[in-house]
Amino acid sequence: MKPYLQVEDLTKSYGDRMLFDSVTFGINEGDKIGLIAKNGTGKSTLLRILSGEEAPDSGSVTFRNGLRVGFLAQIPDFAPGKSILDNLLAAMPEEHHEDWNREDRVRQMLSQLGISDCGIMPEHMSGGQIKRAALAQVFLASPDLLILDEPTNHLDLETVEWLENYLTRQRITLLMVTHDRYFLDRVCNKIIEIDMQQIFTYEGNFDLYLKRRAERIEALTGELAKVRNTLRKEQEWMRRQPQARAGKARYRINAFYDLKERSRANYTERQIDPTDVRSSYIGSKIFEAEGISKRFGEKVILDDFTYTFARYEKLGIVGGNGVGKSTFVKMLQGLVAPDSGEWNVGETVRFGYYSQEGLQLPPNKKVIDAITDLTDDIVLDNGATRLSPMQFLNRFLFTPADQQKYISTLSGGEMRRLNLAAVLVRQPNFLILDEPTNDLDIMTLGILEEYLREFKGCVIVISHDRFFLDSIVDHLFVMEGNGVIKDFPGNYSDYREYLREQKANEEQKAAQKCEAQTKSRSRENSRPAKMSFKERKEFEELTAEIDRLTAERHELETVFNSGEQLSDIEEKARRYSELKDLLDEKEMRWLELSEKA
To answer: Where do the record's region annotations for Disordered lie (predicted)?
Structure first.
């Protein structure tokens, strides 16, 4: 394996906060590495050092001579006033090919990433479009080593899966930071973790990393217990031996203080601890949507949408960018008015809304003041526990010093935690989470998932994080655009498997029809061109039967898409499957006979 990059004794701190101390690691050709760490412990800083955007305090970063490195920043930057096509052409390395060939490559890559309008200006693009264009720019440079900082943020699920397949297929060396656990598991062959200011390297994918890390933490926890046990014995010796603090016992005194420092280690995984923050009581009536329609100009968001939401339901909403997912949940809360229809919300429902934009907390306020403004007394466990705002914020990893920070100075991860605290402090019983996983580290995501699974209320989640959806939801609203919403009974992985099966069935049917047509044409020379009387009668009967079966299938599809609670859903589903098979059979025979018509 060719060494591409070697990091030696790298150290970086901000003031008195050490991120990593004398860390050493290497990247070899073919490595596909996921970089994992808790928020605020140096993931993005390390990437910026490797890309040359930031200098370390000490240590060295050595690249192989002539190595081409591509870097994707969390917030890509394009020149305004120039089309995205011109931006990407300007960034491409010089080639021996003609200009038209370079432009053709750019257009092809943008098209693969879902950008058809190459003349669009960056200032008119959404966050998702900017991220996709930035990925295209990095790929077109044909780097030997790719460094990606949160490549899946702001991407819809379809693009995330395209990117996952692209990076899996390509013979490329990769170092990336991402919180998408399926992405890590399927793309990476090595995991590097920053923990306790050190680097730990694990061979294998994310799933194997979790097992190896658990073993490491268990070993460290056992060692810590031994250290603390030894410390207790040494403390007794220190108390008994005041005269022995000189001469021969000096080494033992030094060892005592070293033990004391080591005993302060904390290997807990909990970055936040909202588990005691229970929901308030929620009644049996949640909400009913009756004939909701909404459009913006020619763009249809909802079209006569009707649905009854059940108690304790956990729903995921998926769909491409711009289909109206955020508008849907805003309409439910009365933040956006429908064009027609009405939402009938139960009296006990208390919404908690965690939006992409956050709560717009005043930047000139301190963290503690933002929570105190919402409430100065937090009652938990039906009155069994009372917390002050300061105690409540401690559960979300805000130390007393952090609570005195101004909101304008918080990092992305800190803002996410503060917004989550501000939502949960009111003890909602209906949580609406719009892209909650951005800027949260993997450890925090695990705790949030645990909380939501046990949450005694209703949950609606909009997310591009497939692992997060699979962990929480029991069914999906698939927003297909143009007002079409399909209710799928299962999680996201179930839905993708369903789509794969549908595609395979369609391809098989297309192949069978093609084969039937080929056979029919080959029989033309050996059989009379015209139908017999018996075949003519069969053809007419088939035409009428196909019309009848098609009408019955459409009736069932209308019922399925209505959102009504059906007592005989299994029977209707079986009949729907029978109809599809019957229609395939009848249509195949109809095609054969139609060749003679």
So the answer is: 506-534
